[in-house]
Amino acid sequence: MTRSTIATPDVITIKPTRMDFTFDADTVPDYWAFKDPFCTHFMGALSTLFPVGERFFVDSVRALHEHAGGAVTSKDISGFIGQEAMHSLEHVSMNAMLEAKGLPALQGEKFTLGLLNLARRILTPRQQLAVTVALEHFTAIIANRLLTDANIMDNLSDEMRPIWMWHAIEETEHKAVAFDLYQNVPGNNHAERVVFQVLATVILAAVVAAFQVWFMARDKQLFNLRSWAFGLKTLFNGRAGVLSGLAGEYLDFFKRDFHPWEHENSALVAYWRERLDGARAQAA
Ligand SMILES: [Fe+2]
Ligand SMILES: [Fe+2]
Q1: Could you tell me the distance, in angstroms and rounded to a whole number, from the CA of residue 223 to the centre of ligand 2?
Q2: What separation in Å is there between the alpha carbon of 132 and the centre of ligand 2?
Q3: CA of 186: how far to CAs of 42, 179, 228, 247, 249, in Å?
Q4: Whose atoms come closest to the Cα of 132: which ligand?
Q5: Cα(51) to centroid of ligand 1, in Å?
Q6: pLDDT 10s per residue in the chain (284 long)?
């Protein structure tokens, strides 16, 4: 495989932070993203995927950790595992709040776990790592969008902004760990990385779309056409769309010499870490 010479910048340290977020279903607004059902349930659907998804990431990296070396150190791998373990925990408590609001977050987690367990049964360890690499590309480009688009951060309620800010910062910090490890595993190849990105994209899109419908239906908003129109426009409005605007960055993954840090955004990490620390100090 053609190897990129790009690596995680030296200014980036990958270390877990314990946040101990608490979410109270009575005080978190029902529509905490853009004051809108679709947008709230889209982010809720993503949160539903995280606890079991991130455990899968951890397991796939841990299973091949002996290939650390070069661009990815054992310390980076420990940092990655620690960060994803914390994300899992915090999204478990966020999902408990969604459940308390009557949304099917726990059933969604169970469904996701079934899919991932199937992947565990039928894929080799290297293929499982390729799935993680593919999905980490999504988390990296979505995190970058969250950290660069003030319109998103400004439209999250105060109770919900910190978890997304923190998660996006750490996804950026560790975005190359699974990728660099995969490149060290014997037999890795560009075709495999591409095939698993295509598969991961199709399955992820189908699951998120199904969860979106499920959450909207459970919230009796399935026929709220105004919300569907607003939400779909927010996600898919060309270059301005939260998802459609990521098309270029998404496609970069398919290049032979792609590396996650060719999207150099380490300055964002420093900027948002400071804001997050400030927000925590204020809340304390
Ligand atoms: Fe994460
Ligand atoms: Fe991650």
Answers
A1: 34
A2: 8
A3: 38, 13, 46, 30, 27
A4: 2
A5: 9
A6: 456 678 888 888 899 999 999 999 999 999 999 999 999 999 999 999 999 999 999 999 999 999 999 999 999 999 999 999 999 999 999 999 999 999 999 999 999 999 999 999 999 999 999 999 999 999 999 999 999 999 999 999 999 999 999 999 999 999 999 999 999 999 999 999 999 999 999 999 999 999 999 999 999 999 999 999 999 999 999 999 999 999 999 999 999 999 999 999 999 999 998 888 887 777 66
Q: How far is the CA of 89 from the centre of ligand 1 (A)?
A: 10
Cα separation values, 110 from 180, 224, 268, Å: 30, 27, 34
From ligand 1's centre to the CA of 87, what distance in Å? 5
List phi, psi (to 5°) of 26: -80, -30
Six-digit token pair at 174? 């560790």
Distance in Å, CA 169 to ligand 2 centroid:
10
Question: From ligand 2's centre to the CA of 41, what distance in Å?
Answer: 21
Q: How far is the CA of 63 from the centre of ligand 2 (A)?
A: 16
Residue 190: name the closest of 138, 140, 255 by CA: 255
Question: How would you class 277 by CB atoms within 10 Å of its CB: exposed for 0-12, middle for 13-18, buried for 19 or more?
Answer: exposed
Residues, CB-to-ion distance under 5 Å, ligand 1: 54, 84, 87
Q: What's the pTM value of the predicted model, to 2 decimals?
A: 0.95
CA angle 62, 267, 152 (to 5 degrees): 85
Ligand 2 midpoint to CA 6 (Å): 19
